[in-house]
Recover the amino acids of this structure.
């Protein structure tokens, strides 16, 4: 649909949930839920369990809580209709895992739901000792246990931690049974070690070190956690620190700071950069303590003044990237790519007149996937300033100013229900259609954007294994192959109280339709692993331009136990 019309260079645009097809009916009735928490093995009731439920109708989130009594039962009154995720908490116990890591239930308007059964099991723990390369214990080391796979939605059970004591010992409890990465990160206050006889060579504890003693996560060993305690002793490694320095030049504006960002997502230096990054004479910068790795440099630039008297602060990605190996890196000459203007014109393939002012246009820079830095920008914000995307003019023309060089996606948005069936049919740049490939502007560019009201539609119903409707679940519509790189081909839609859904404004092609109990999916539906995992559990739909298909699909099962 048109709020997601995108010129796709890659499949990294965040999927959004479209506006629901009907307004939620007003309900005077009150809803309630009653249930019981039991031991997963014995079936015995568990008292003093904190029960938290979060959810509601579509995008309206509500939070409720209760506690189990001596017989393990609980009750929550005055819930709003919708689907809820359940989180259980009690010392020494964890919520029993389900097929997809979540436990949900749905409440219909006026319904008093009873007989729900939720399970807990004995928690696991990891304990051990952290030492240095000489075997001496290290205090104040942060040790983390990171569950392998998707953590339970709405909880922090997927990442637990502890800090070593004066004996270097740690213990991480309340872990859900499963496989974990265990890694240790010494505190920033740990001093730099200078190598004897090498005045310029400095070492620091690697951050982090993974069990059983490696800085490479791909070489780490998973720790199997079960009810009870397992041991994981290991030593933290040391790594060299290097100096990085150079100068910065930008096409316009005043550079006030330079920031290094690791492309692996790790830290840049042992002191969280400290005063590093400040510019000296001639826009010279210097970092004293940089770990080996590949870095991207970002410049904070002030350009003129905005209308309210505040400076226009922008963030520019600098070239080239920085490789820190086994020596200091000096004499770098970093620069941005000259900013340009993106101008374009919207037109309809049918020639109809549209209120073009209902559309907005912005660009999304595509940076290295490992940095996970993405932002939709428009107007003077094309390089990072905070501003809303500009609206198109009444004649369909639009302009995006101060766009730095790079690869981009064009994002078209609207809040109008009248344009929900529209999709981007083509975007012409330099005489070719870049709808799927994206574009790399160099200076001023002109785009010809063709939209069509002939977007395809999928509507249908979600049922359970007994053929009963499943209300308030999430339906994911995922392109199968040919348009995997087009973010506007992905949609997440909620079902209503009757288990009905509708996805409109789809690009013609082949899609997989999958239904899940979660309000919003934990997985990124754009990643190839998503279809590898769930591709056989949905319905395949072939769509032509302007076609409308009706389907019935089964929900991907969870282990929720309900009456």
């Amino acid at each position: 649909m048109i709020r997601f019309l995108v010129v796709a260079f890659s499949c990294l645009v965040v999927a959004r949930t479209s506006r629901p097809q009907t307004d939620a009916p007003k309900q005077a009735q009150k809803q309630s839920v009653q249930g019981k928490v039991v031991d997963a093995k014995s079936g015995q009731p568990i008292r003093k369990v904190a029960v938290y439920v979060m959810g509601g109708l579509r995008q309206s989130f509500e939070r409720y809580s209760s506690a189990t009594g001596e017989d393990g039962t609980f009750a929550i009154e005055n819930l709003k209709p919708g689907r809820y995720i359940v989180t259980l908490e009690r010392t020494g116990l964890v919520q029993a895992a389900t097929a997809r890591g979540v436990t949900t239930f749905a409440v219909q308007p006026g319904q008093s739901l009873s007989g729900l059964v939720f399970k807990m099991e004995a928690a696991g723990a990891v304990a051990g000792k952290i030492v240095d390369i000489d075997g001496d214990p290290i205090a104040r080391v942060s040790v983390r246990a990171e569950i392998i796979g998707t953590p339970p939605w709405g909880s922090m059970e997927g990442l637990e931690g502890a800090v070593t004591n004066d004996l270097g010992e740690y213990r991480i409890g309340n872990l859900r049974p499963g496989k974990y990465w265990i890694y240790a990160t010494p505190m920033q206050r740990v001093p730099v070690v200078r190598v004897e006889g090498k005045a310029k060579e400095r070492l620091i504890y690697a951050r982090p070190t993974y069990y059983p003693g490696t800085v490479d996560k791909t070489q780490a060993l998973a720790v199997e956690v079960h009810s009870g305690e397992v041991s994981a002793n290991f030593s933290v490694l040391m790594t060299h620190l290097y100096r990085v320095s150079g100068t910065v030049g930008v096409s316009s504006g005043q550079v006030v700071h330079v920031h290094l960002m690791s492309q692996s997502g790790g830290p840049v230096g042992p002191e969280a950069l400290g005063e590093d990054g400040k510019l000296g004479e001639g826009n010279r910068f210097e970092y004293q303590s940089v770990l080996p790795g590949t870095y991207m440099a970002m410049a904070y630039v002030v350009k003129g003044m905005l209308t309210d008297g505040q400076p226009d602060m922008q963030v520019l990605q600098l070239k080239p990237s920085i490789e820190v190996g086994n020596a200091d890196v000096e004499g770098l000459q970093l620069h941005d790519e000259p900013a340009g203007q993106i101008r374009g014109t919207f037109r309809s393939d049918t020639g109809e007149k549209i209120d073009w002012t209902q559309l907005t246009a912005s660009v999304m820079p595509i940076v290295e996937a490992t940095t996970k830095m993405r932002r939709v920008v428009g107007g003077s914000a094309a390089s990072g300033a905070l501003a809303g995307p500009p609206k198109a003019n009444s004649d369909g023309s639009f302009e995006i100013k101060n766009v730095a060089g790079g690869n981009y996606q064009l994002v078209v948005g609207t809040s109008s229900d009248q344009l929900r069936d529209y999709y981007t049919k083509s975007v012409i740049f330099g005489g070719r259609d870049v709808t799927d490939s994206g574009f790399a502007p160099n200076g001023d560019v002109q785009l010809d954007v063709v939209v069509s009201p002939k977007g395809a539609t999928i509507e249908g119903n979600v049922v359970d294994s007994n053929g009963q409707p499943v209300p308030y679940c999430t339906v994911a519509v995922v392109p199968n192959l040919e348009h995997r790189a087009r973010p506007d081909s992905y949609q997440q839609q909620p079902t209503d109280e009757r288990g009905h859904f509708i996805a409109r404004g789809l690009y013609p092609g082949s899609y997989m339709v999958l239904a899940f109990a979660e309000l919003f999916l934990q997985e990124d539906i754009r990643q190839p692993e998503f279809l590898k995992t769930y591709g056989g559990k949905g319905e395949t739909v072939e769509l032509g331009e302007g076609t409308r298909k009706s389907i019935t699909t089964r929900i991907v099962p969870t282990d929720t136990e309900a009456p």
The longest helix spans residues 528-534. The domain at 2-14+339-452 is CATH 2.60.40.1120 (Immunoglobulin-like).
